[in-house]
Amino acid sequence: MPTTDFRVQEKYRYQNGFNSYHESEAVEGALPIAANSPQKPPYGLYAEKLSGTAFTAPRHENLQTWLYRILPASAHSPFEARESSTYNTNPENKPHEKLHQIPNQLRWDPFDIDETVDWVHSLHLVAGAGDPTMKQGVGYFIFAAGKDMGHREAFYSADGDFLIVLQHGVLDIQTELGKILVRPNEICIIPRGVRYRVTLPLGPVRGYILELYQGHFQLPELGPIGSNCLANARDFQAPVAYFDEDTDSEWTLLSKFAGHLFAAKQNHTPFDVVAWHGLYYPYKYDLGRFNTMGSISFDHPDPSIYTVLTAQSDHPGTAVADFVIFPPRWLVAEDTFRPPWYHRNTMSEFMGLIHGQYDAKTGGGFQPAGASLHNVMSAHGPDATTHEKASNADLKPMKVGEGSMAFMFESCLMVGVTEWGLKKCRKLQEGYNAESWEPLKPHFRRPERRVGEIRNGGEEKEGVIGDRSQVSHWTS
Ligand SMILES: [Fe+2]
Question: Which residues are catalytically annotated?
Answer without folding.
Answer: 300, 343, 349, 374, 380
